[in-house]
Amino acid sequence: MRLLPKKLKYARTDIWREGKWLDLWSVVHVFSGLLVGFSIYLLHMDAVLGTMLAAVVLIAYELFEIYAEIEEAPTNRFMDVVVGMVGYVPAYFLISPILTSEDLVLTFVLLLVLNSALSIAGWHASQKALDIEKHLRTRLAADRQRLKERSKRFRSKHHF
Fold this sequence. Notes:
Elements: E1 2-4, E2 9-11, H1 25-42, H2 47-67, H3 74-95, H4 101-158
Antiparallel strand pairs: 1-2
């Protein structure tokens, strides 16, 4: 994370930073789309209804992120739904039909573990970034206060 002096805005520089269109979280959204596709297939849901449900679930998650005040560019929110559907389509239409029920469940569980691990790693990186930002903002406020005090002492000493 670095301080941008003109805007006094902190920009994350870690690999989990939010991108304008795509970012590392996009991988999590692709995996989530795959999981939704496997789930809908396991529930023996009709293709049209399942696809509509998948879109609703992915959009609902983005709405939840807005409600939770997770900051993202609107383009990134849009692409999160798109890449989620990119995961859903092959999972439902191509991969699930050729797997046995046992292999499908195993694939689902392994992907769920992987996606959960990625999500936890990203969440921890985000929390660390928030802690760094909080520390830098506190330090910046203290530096501003010290500068005001120095300026005040200088003015009084030199009769400004």
